[in-house]
Amino acid sequence: MFGCMTPPIEHLTEPQRACLRLVASHHNSKEIAGLLGVSPSAVDKRIERAVQMLDARSRFAAARMLVEHEGGTTSDRLPWEPIDVPNTADVAPIPLSNEPWWLARRLLGLSPGGRQGGRMRNHLTKLQRLGMMVALTLFVAVSSMVVLNMALTLSSLIAHYR
Fold it and tell me: How far apart are CA 80 and CA 136, in angstroms?
């Protein structure tokens, strides 16, 4: 397909290389599309074409080939592991359940050892989270009172019409 002097990896376009680099760092097509400002189908087409050009078994194999060609190293994480979870070999486990009030601290976002880099999944502030918990508690209390009041009313109506 290509001349015998240049390896197929040299014929990859820069957009294909960018997609493969992000695949190597374990991003999926939707995440790559958001980072590059293109559609997920465009990302899939770029990666599929690169896999064909490199005659690789998968997108991960093609990404590994590119990273090794560029002199980088591949990650120790497997492709299906979440990006934001630290490697267990790198971080010592913190026994939070032994800490007093650990569950309340976790719900309020005060627990130690949060995310190391990257965005948090919950964008609410601590005050907003506390407000949500108070609102939920009030909702449950009012709902319970309504249900109890309805049960009392029904029982009194049944007793009255017997």
Answer: 35
Q: CA–CA distance from 118 to each of 35, 36, 60, 114, 121 (Å)? A: 13, 17, 22, 11, 9
Helix (H, G, I), strand (E, B) or coil at 70: coil
Query: pTM of the predicted model, to two decimals?
Result: 0.45
Instruction: Fill in the amino acid letter for 116.
Output: Q
Tell me if 48 sits within 8 A of 41, measured CB to CB: no
Q: What is the pLDDT of residues 67-85, one digit of tens each?
A: 888 887 655 555 555 555 4
Mean pLDDT of 16-24: 91
Q: Count of CB atoms within 10 A of residue 27's CB?
A: 18
Instruction: Output the six-digit token pair for 22.
Output: 């992000």
As a whole number of Å, the CA-based R_g of the chain is 27
Structure tokens at 25: 């760092």
Tens of pLDDT along 114-155?
Answer: 554 445 556 778 888 888 899 999 999 999 999 999 999 999
DSSP state of 5: S
Contact indicator for 109, 122 with CB cutoff of 8 Å: yes
